[in-house]
C-alpha cells in the first residue's frame, strides 16, 4: 500500500497535461489542477497498472508504456506537454507552416495518433520520367503568418501533386529499437525468391549524426530515428527551426522576403533553462515512451481472417511481428513488436510520385497496420475511405495478393476484413 501511495504522489507532482488544442507554453509556471488533469492522472495510473497490481487492464490509447521509471515518466510528461503546445509567431511559428501544434495532426484516437488533415507535396516529372524537386524541395505549406508575405504557392510547372496524411506515432520507441539487421534481412530488391515482391531497405544518412542508417519513420522511410523525425516535423510542419533543421523553409519565397516575414530569425528551438532539454528532445521522449495500441478481441472470425491474410500473401510485406534487439532498458529489451510491417520500401501502386531520400517516386514504406481500426481515411493521401478500398488500390508487387483477394468467397472476405478491423 505504501508503494502505491508513493506512485500516486510522484504522479501528482509530475503530471501536467492539458487538453489538445489549448494553448500552453513550457516556459510558463505550472498551472493549477483541473478536472482534465485528474482524468489524465487516472489514465496514467491505469496504463501503469502492471506496476501497481497483478490485474491486467486494457492500455488506453495515448498511454505511456507500462513499467516506466519515475524519470522516464517525467520525460514522457514533458514531451506530452510540448506535443500539446500551440505555437505562435512570437515563439517561432512559421512564417510558412501546416499546423500550430503536434496535436493538431496527431490526436485521433488520442494524442500521438492521426487526424483527418493532410499536407501537400509537389514536383516536376520530365519527359523521361525523372522526378525533379522545384525550388529545392517538395513540401508546399498550407498557411503563413500575417501579413502573409511568405505564403507558399505551388509553381505552375508542377505536374506531380499529392497529399499526405499524418502517421500515427504509437509504439514509436519499440519501432526504433528494432535492429537494422532485422529490416535488412527482410529485403529482396532483386526478387531472388521469385515471389513478385522486391522490398528494399531505405539506406539514408541521418540528419542528426550524419551516419548511415536504415530509414524506418515517415511515408518514405526518410528518417531512422525519432529525434530526426520529430525535428523534421517541427521545422517542416510548424516552421520552428532547430539544431537538426536550422534554416527556415518556404519554397519559392524570395530569401529577403522570408527574412522580413520571420520575427525570430535566430534558432527557435532553444533548450529550456530548467531542464536543459530542447523541444525536439521532448518530442523524442513522448514518441519513445508512447505505448502501442492494443488489438481488439480475438473472435473466431478474426482468427480465420488472420489466416486468410497470411494465405493470400499480405503478410509478406505486412509482417505481423518483428522484435527489438538487446537493450539495457527493459522496456525495449527483446520485445515483440506486432506492427504488421516490414518497414521496407515497396512499389504496390500506391506511391505518391515524389522521390524523397532513398525512396523512388513509386515507392512507399509499408505502413504498419497496428491501430488500423482507429484510422480513416486510409493510404498515404487519404483516398481510401474503407479498408477494402485501400486493398483494391494495391497493384505492382501486391498484384498476386490482389488476385487472390478477388477470388475469396464473400464469407472469406468478411473474415479478412473483420480481422483487419480488429487491429
Helix-strand blueprint:
Elements: H1 2-14, H2 35-47, H3 70-84, E1 96-97, E2 119-125, E3 131-132, E4 139-140, E5 143-144, E6 160-164, H4 172-176, H5 180-186, E7 202-205, E8 212-215, H6 226-238, H7 255-261, H8 279-289, H9 300-311, E9 322-323, E10 336-337, E11 345-346, E12 364-365, H10 387-392, H11 399-406, H12 410-420
Antiparallel strand pairs: 1-5, 2-3, 2-4, 2-6, 7-8, 9-10, 11-12
Helix pairs in contact: 1-3, 3-8, 6-8, 9-12
Can I get a quick summary?
With 423 residues, this protein is α+β, with helices and mostly antiparallel strands.
Task: Describe this structure as you would to a colleague.
With 423 residues, the protein is an alpha+beta fold. It contains 12 helices and 12 strands. It has helices at 2-14, 35-47, 70-84, 172-176, 180-186, 226-238, 255-261, 279-289, 300-311, 387-392, 399-406, 410-420; strands at 96-97, 119-125, 131-132, 139-140, 143-144, 160-164, 202-205, 212-215, 322-323, 336-337, 345-346, 364-365. Strands 2, 3, 4 and 6 form a 4-stranded antiparallel sheet that branches. Strand 7 (202-205) and strand 8 (212-215) form a beta hairpin. Helix 1 packs parallel to helix 3 (70-84). The longest helix is centred in the N-terminal third of the chain and has 15 residues, at 70-84. It is globular and about 60 Å long. The two termini are 36 Å apart. Residues 1-55 have low confidence and may be disordered.
Amino acid at each position: 500500500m505504501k508503494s502505491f501511495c508513493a506512485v500516486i504522489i510522484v504522479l501528482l507532482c509530475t503530471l501536467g497535461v492539458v487538453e489538445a488544442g489549448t494553448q500552453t507554453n513550457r516556459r510558463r509556471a505550472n498551472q493549477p489542477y483541473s478536472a482534465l488533469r485528474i482524468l489524465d492522472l487516472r489514465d496514467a495510473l491505469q496504463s501503469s497498472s502492471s506496476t501497481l497490481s497483478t490485474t491486467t487492464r486494457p492500455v488506453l490509447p495515448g498511454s505511456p508504456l507500462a513499467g516506466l521509471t519515475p524519470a522516464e515518466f517525467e520525460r514522457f510528461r514533458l514531451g506530452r506537454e510540448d506535443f500539446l503546445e500551440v505555437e505562435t509567431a512570437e515563439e517561432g511559428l512559421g512564417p510558412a507552416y501546416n499546423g500550430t501544434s503536434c496535436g493538431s495532426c496527431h490526436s485521433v484516437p488520442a494524442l500521438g495518433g492521426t487526424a483527418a488533415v493532410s499536407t501537400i507535396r509537389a514536383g516536376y516529372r520530365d519527359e523521361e520520367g525523372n522526378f525533379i524537386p522545384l525550388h529545392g524541395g517538395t513540401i508546399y505549406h498550407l498557411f503563413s503568418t500575417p501579413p502573409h508575405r511568405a505564403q507558399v504557392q505551388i509553381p505552375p510547372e508542377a505536374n506531380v501533386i499529392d497529399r499526405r496524411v499524418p502517421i500515427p506515432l504509437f509504439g514509436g520507441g519499440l519501432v526504433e529499437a528494432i535492429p537494422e539487421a532485422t529490416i535488412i534481412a527482410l529485403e529482396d530488391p532483386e526478387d531472388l525468391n521469385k515471389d513478385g515482391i522486391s522490398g528494399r531497405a531505405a539506406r539514408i544518412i541521418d540528419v542528426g549524426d550524419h551516419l548511415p542508417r536504415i530509414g524506418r519513420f515517415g511515408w518514405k522511410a526518410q528518417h531512422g530515428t525519432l529525434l530526426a523525425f520529430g525535428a523534421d516535423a517541427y521545422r517542416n510542419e510548424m516552421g520552428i527551426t532547430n539544431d537538426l533543421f536550422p534554416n527556415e523553409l518556404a519554397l519559392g519565397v524570395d530569401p529577403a522576403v522570408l527574412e522580413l516575414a520571420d520575427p525570430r530569425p535566430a534558432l527557435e528551438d532553444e533548450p529550456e533553462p530548467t531542464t536543459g532539454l530542447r523541444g525536439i528532445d521532448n518530442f523524442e521522449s513522448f514518441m519513445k515512451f508512447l505505448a502501442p495500441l492494443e488489438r481488439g478481441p480475438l473472435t473466431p472470425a478474426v482468427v480465420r481472417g488472420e489466416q486468410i491474410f497470411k494465405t493470400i500473401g499480405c503478410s509478406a510485406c505486412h509482417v505481423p511481428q518483428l522484435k527489438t534487439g538487446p537493450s539495457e532498458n527493459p522496456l525495449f529489451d527483446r520485445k515483440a513488436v506486432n506492427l504488421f510491417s516490414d518497414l521496407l520500401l515497396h512499389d504496390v501502386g500506391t506511391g505518391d510520385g515524389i522521390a524523397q531520400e532513398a525512396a523512388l517516386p513509386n515507392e512507399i514504406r509499408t505502413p504498419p497496420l497496428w491501430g488500423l481500426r482507429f484510422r480513416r481515411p486510409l493510404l498515404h493521401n487519404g483516398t481510401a475511405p474503407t479498408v477494402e478500398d485501400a486493398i483494391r488500390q494495391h497493384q505492382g508487387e501486391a498484384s498476386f495478393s490482389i488476385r487472390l483477394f478477388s477470388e475469396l468467397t464473400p464469407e472469406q472476405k468478411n473474415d479478412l476484413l473483420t480481422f483487419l478491423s480488429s487491429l
